[in-house]
Amino acid sequence: MTWRADNIINLASVDILLLQVENISFGYRNIPLFSGISLDVLPGDLVHLTGPNGSGKTTFLKVIAGLITPDSGSIYFRNGYFEYLDSESNGLYLKMSALNNLRFWTKLKQHPKDHQQLNDQLLYWGLNNKYITQSLPVENFSTGMKRKLALARVVLSAEKIWLLDEPILGLDERSIGLFSNRLKSHLDQGGGAVVISHDLDPISGMTSKTLTFGS
Amino acid sequence: MTVFLKQIVTLTRHFARVETANPERLLSPILFSATVLLLFFFAFSPLDQEVFVKVFIAQTFLSIFFALQIGFARIFEPDDQDRAFTLLRTYRPIPEAWFISKYIVIVVFGTIIIASTMTLSLFFNQSTLTDVTSSAVFLVAILALLGISALGLLLSAMMLKADSKQILYPLLYFPLTTPVLLAAVQSAQEILINATSTADLLSSWLGLLLIFDVIYIILSTLLFGELVKSE
Predict the structure, then answer these.
(1) Is a pLDDT exceeding 50 seen at residue A1?
(2) Using N-to-C axis directions, what is the helix angle for B205-228 and B95-124, rounded to 10°?
(3) Deepest of A26, A155, A163, A208, by most Cβ within 10 A of its Cβ?
């Protein structure tokens, strides 16, 4: 498996690195999936992970998120924290309401938001019906609504680094636009993101680096 | 308030909300207890007092044990439904705060199950039972709960790891909880049949029960961190 980084980091910028990945290697039962991957993310950087199915993009993102131990290499986050979005799940408590889900995750991050801030975020994503957001268990939400709620959680986290695996999965066209706008303002405000997406439109014009996985 | 305490408060409130959001999770173990007790009642009544007390102890602890087992096997069910457990790991809460929060909620719900089971047991046997209302027996059951809850929580977390072997849960849980249950049953017998005081029991079965509790709580707290920590 090979990789390439499109640009080279200036050494003078090391002190403002949001994320540094050094020489990460990983394989299953001695069959290497990827090896020697290094990556630096600076404020405003969007790193696009690309490659065919099964080439190791999701595994690489999980390694960065600390969910899988790499065979070798090291990962440094500037403040130790990040926000992660899985491709196959949204990390929601299905029996609880949208508002209670958001309230819990923001409180746990020590960035509690007041009722208005949470509602504003839900409103942005079009989840503004009071009954739906405050009373209805999220298990009754459609796939797209659950994804929007998960994205609202990512935005509310106030973390500088977002690790997003197929963030627009299940979203309609309007919601994809909303996601692009939020991602752009996150990058404009000095944040960084590592994104896996087979659809290039939502991140077009924002990508500063590309890591290509695959043989 | 320190970050540790803040996390305990946030997580405990949250886990309690999650548990109460689905009443079935509490109702199933209690109804299971009721069914077992009803079967015992029809199978064994009437009995002379000494045999009755032994049967009472056996049926009560058996009901409690399996009712709790139903609860423990599903401790992380709400966390696992949409992989919130995985997301929680990336949030890196202090592992001890996570363990304590989950443990508090389990012990509270376990206490409700035990209280319900004992109340039902008394209800089915009210005509012949007088001294089993002793709060000392309830205390013994709670002490057993403290140990097996810690163990149940640890093993359930172990099963959530992607590479874990599900078969390990019954193979570890049942043998490891047996000594706790034996100590609890013996303590209850001593209290009900021999009228031994709890103070005297501390140097024998009750003491053993307490030792198991301490060992399981400490071990589980330490090992839980290893299971849930971010790599």
Answers:
(1) no
(2) 140
(3) A163
d(CA A133, CA A122) in angstroms, rounded, equals 8
The answer to whether A71 and A60 are in contact (CB under 8 A) is no
- Checking if the pLDDT of A3 tops 50, the result is no
Dump pLDDT digits (tens) for B106-130: 999 989 988 888 888 888 876 555 5
Where does residue B203 rank: exposed (0-12), middle (13-18), buried (19+ CB within 10 A)?
A: exposed
More confident of the two residues A124 and B133: A124
Positive or negative, the Cα torsion across A52, A53, A56, A57?
positive
Chain A residue with minimal CA distance to B25? Answer: A95
Q: State the Cα–Cα distance between residues B40 and B207, nearest whole angstrom.
A: 30
Q: Is the N-terminal amide bond of B46 cis, ω within 30° of 0?
A: yes
The whole-angstrom separation of Cα B198 and Cα B200 is 5
> Of the candidates B11, B79, B86, which has its C-beta nearest A67's C-beta?
B86
| pTM (2 d.p.) | 0.87
C-beta separation of B231 from B161 below 8 A: no
- The sign of the CA dihedral A76, A195, A110, A136 is negative
**Coil, helix or strand at residue A100:** helix
Would you give the distance in Å from CA A64 to the centre of its chain? 11
* Set of chain B residues whose Cβ sits within 8 Å of the Cβ of A26: none
Question: Are B231 and A68 in contact (CB < 8 Å)?
Answer: yes
DSSP code at position A15: G
For chain A, first and last CA: distance in Å?
5
Cα–Cα distances (Å) from A156 to A69, A106, A124, in that order, read 28, 7, 12
Q: Kindly determine whether residue A93 and residue B81, on different chains, have CB atoms separated by under 8 Å.
A: yes
pLDDT of residue A9: 44
Instruction: Tell me the pLDDT tens digit for each residue of B124-176.
Output: 876 555 555 567 788 889 999 999 999 999 988 888 775 666 777 788 888 99
What 3-state class would DSSP assign to A81? coil
Residue whose pair of structure tokens reads 């059951």 in the numeric block: B141
Q: Which uninterrupted H or E stretch holds A191?
A: none
The ipTM, to two decimals, is 0.88
**Which of B182, B8, B176, B26 has the alpha carbon at shortest distance from B109?**
B26
Provide the 3-class DSSP secondary structure of residue A36: strand
Contact A54, A134 (CB under 8 A): no
* Number of alpha helices (DSSP H) and beta strands (DSSP E) in chain B: 10, 0
Q: In B, which residues are within 8 Å of A146 by CB distance?
A: 82
